[in-house]
Specification:
The chain is an alpha+beta fold and about 325 residues long. The protein contains three helices and 18 strands. The two termini are about 30 Å apart.
Length: about 325
């Protein structure tokens, strides 16, 4: 079964439900290389992502993806340490040890199949002949137009040569949204573990901010507690993902509270009950956000009562 991946390559995104992207690294060839953390072992690896559509552009054969994966695995069999290849739509992911002296590099261009060389060569000659005929036709048209213009003066009904469409500019991918600060906030209680607030945005799933232990799960939304996450500039997002080691926390994504305000000064943008691992919460888009409140309205069951942990918070650009 194919694993799934968050299609947006941003720090914090999780590939194949296992590898969290941490930091972009210099690319080799036409793949995108990342430093990524294995959420199973806690180790960091080099992870390269190759778009399936680009692989098929380099090699139009029906089994292009299979050949690419086998080429990568053959490279891995000659290397020491962990090496893995995953087909994870819309990418093929290559995972290898950090600092490898010979990291996997994709072929610059796939060689043509021997069986297809004859038909392709014939097609090339056909296309060349068509291009030559078109060129001679264009030259004849220009010559006749020029002669008519010289003999008859201003010729207003002569059709103009067609203009080739200019290349449309490619829209750049959205910039990743990186928080710059986090602080614990509640209008009705003292902050729980405020010194650990930044652990929820440090791109390290092994660390976490946690609430205190409570005898009840809060019961009402106003009794909750949360994190105000700040950005260095105005951002637009339409999803927030929250990574939690234990399932059962009810999380609301809200607009930030007003200075000295209560929870009623905020507005709910989206909500979800978290599972174990990453939970994605679709949200209303608030253009130009500089902060957001990640609000724990109901705690998860714990050994000695109720408590919640948040190990990472991330944002998907709108």
């Amino acid at each position: 079964m194919e694993a799934q991946v968050n299609a947006s390559q941003v720090p914090g995104a999780v590939v194949a439900d296992r590898y969290r992207l941490l930091q972009r690294r210099p690319s080799i060839g036409w793949g995108a290389r990342w430093r990524a953390k294995d959420l199973t072992s806690g180790r960091d690896f080099s992870l390269s992502l190759f778009r399936i559509a680009v692989i098929q552009t380099h090699d139009p054969s029906p089994d292009a993806i299979g050949k690419f994966i086998e080429t990568a695995r053959a490279h891995g069999r000659r290397r020491d340490g962990q090496f893995d290849v995953l087909e994870t739509t819309p990418y093929v992911a290559v995972i290898e040890e950090l600092g490898s002296r010979r990291p996997f590099a994709p072929p610059a261009e796939a060689p043509p199949d021997a069986d297809a060389a004859g038909p392709r060569r014939q097609l090339t000659w056909v296309l060349a002949a068509v291009a030559a005929v078109a060129a001679f036709g264009l030259m004849g048209w220009l010559l006749s137009t020029t002669m008519l213009a010289n003999n008859l003066g201003d010729v207003s009904n002569v059709a103009a040569a067609p203009e080739l469409p200019s290349a449309m500019p490619t829209k750049p991918p959205p910039a990743p949204i990186l928080p710059v600060g986090a602080e614990v906030w509640s209008a009705v209680r003292s902050p729980d573990n405020p010194e650990d607030a930044r652990l929820a945005i440090d791109a390290n799933p092994a660390t976490a901010w946690s609430t205190d232990d409570y005898r009840s799960p809060f019961g009402t939304t106003n009794n909750g507690i949360g994190l105000v996450v700040n950005f260095a500039y105005q951002v637009d997002f339409d999803e927030v993902w929250v990574s939690t080691p234990v399932a059962g926390t009810t999380v609301e994504i809200r607009t930030p509270p007003e200075p000295n305000g209560t929870l009623s000064s905020t507005r709910v943008l989206g909500s979800a009950v978290t599972g174990r691992g990453v939970t994605t919460i679709p949200t209303e888009v608030v253009p130009g956000s500089r902060a957001v409140l990640v609000w724990v309205s109901e705690l998860a069951p714990a050994t000695s009562g109720f408590a919640s942990e948040i190990s990472e918070i991330g944002f998907t650009p709108a």
